[in-house]
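Running log. JK asked me to keep both predictions on one page so they can be read side by side. First protein, sequence followed by its tokens:
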Amino acid sequence: MLKLILIAGAGGFLGTVSRFFASRYLHYLFLTSFPIGTFIVNIIGCLLIGIFFGISEKGNVMSSEWRMFLTVGFCGGFTTFSAFAFENLALLRDGDFFYFALYSALSVFLGLTATFLGQQFILKTF
């Protein structure tokens, strides 16, 4: 059990650091009140978790430790629902109802779509 906790924790650390840098870079690149950094990071994270679960479903390609590291750890640290919720509240507080609706709807739709496409790509390609 301790081994799995350390594996997930190591993946979570790397995912969190990756999210920090990617989100900062995207906010720097696109100067907008739309929370583009969290949005893009969350969609990429959904695509990645779909790919990782697709790989893990292909048999003995990925060990359970690697699956834990990549899905629970890395993707769990890379994506962030709490930032998504906070940014939506900030958009509502600022009266930016269009960006609130756009951010919420696109995040859910594209997140589910990216997860599905990532998984299907692996299952059908390999």
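And the second, directly underneath as requested:
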Amino acid sequence: MSKSKDARRVAANEALAVCHSIRTSPRKLNLVAQSIRGLNASKAVAELSFSKKRIAKVALAVLQSAIANAENNHQLNIDKLVVKEAFVGKGLVMKRMHARGRGRGARVLKPFSNMTIVVAERGE
């Protein structure tokens, strides 16, 4: 007795990649995700490659993973791929203490994010 196969989360002409526990706030990562939404895959790679934001390197790795999934797992044409969705969610938040004056302590929040990129093959 094996488990029944789950239905695909995306359509037949789409592929996705997910990255969990990215060490940045969702607000900062969403700025990077906004810059590639709706672009061709090649233009999105170029956009992230030359971005000055530190977290753009991680977003580039997620995008390249989605492109590789589309090519190898779903046999999609990589020249016709577009970034259909790029969204960010909240992950865990580490709470740390920072010593302050007069014996007090201040809470430091270190947030993590999750990123999902869906690429789709553009129809003619």
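Observation for JK regarding the second prediction: The radius of gyration is 18 Å.
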